[in-house]
Specification:
By secondary structure, the chain is of the alpha/beta class. It has one domain: 3-Layer(aba) Sandwich (Rossmann fold). Helix content is about 40%, strand content about 20%. The protein is built from five helices and six strands. The chain has helices at about 10-25, 35-40, 60-70, 85-95, 110-120, and strands spanning about 5, 25-30, 50, 80, 100-105, 130. Helix 3 (about 60-70) links the parallel strand 3 and strand 4. It is globular, with a radius of gyration of 13 Å.
Length: about 140
């Protein structure tokens, strides 16, 4: 069963993504911060990471930079999620190796699942264009 690590500081967002992904047959692990996610990665190896951009302690960009500098974790695909469509953040996420950038408002759930499925199965092209995701 493919697994997804959801990293978001908002509990309701983590629960919503987890509910949708579990219904699609994914094993889900959640973390409330970048620091929490690093601890989780010591014991689990997800197939992909869904990573919020704006978080306290360690934001998503800092986490992504650490992740991709680590020899074991650097190959993990990451899709960034944010409430904001900021071109600088989108560009920076791409530079740091994110596979995609989802905006938390506007995208139908089936489209979100399609993107996650494609990424887990390594057939999603890198994209610098944000996708609007509704949760």
């Amino acid at each position: 069963m493919p697994s997804v690590l959801i990293v978001d500081d908002t509990e309701s967002t983590r629960r919503a993504f987890a509910c949708v992904l579990r219904a699609e047959g994914y094993e889900v692990v959640t973390a409330s911060s970048g620091t929490d996610a690093l601890r989780r990665l010591e014991t689990v190896r997800p197939d992909m990471i869904l990573l919020d951009v704006i978080m306290p302690e360690m934001d998503g960009m800092e986490f992504l930079e650490l992740l991709h500098s680590h020899p074991v974790w650097r190959a993990l695909p990451v899709i960034m999620i944010s409430a904001l469509s900021d071109p600088r953040r989108i560009r920076r996420a791409k530079e740091l190796g994110a596979k995609g950038f989802l905006i938390k408002a506007g995208l139908p759930i089936p489209e979100l699942i399609r993107l996650i499925n494609a990424d887990v199965h390594n057939c999603m092209p890198d994209s610098s264009e944000p996708v609007h995701a509704g949760i």
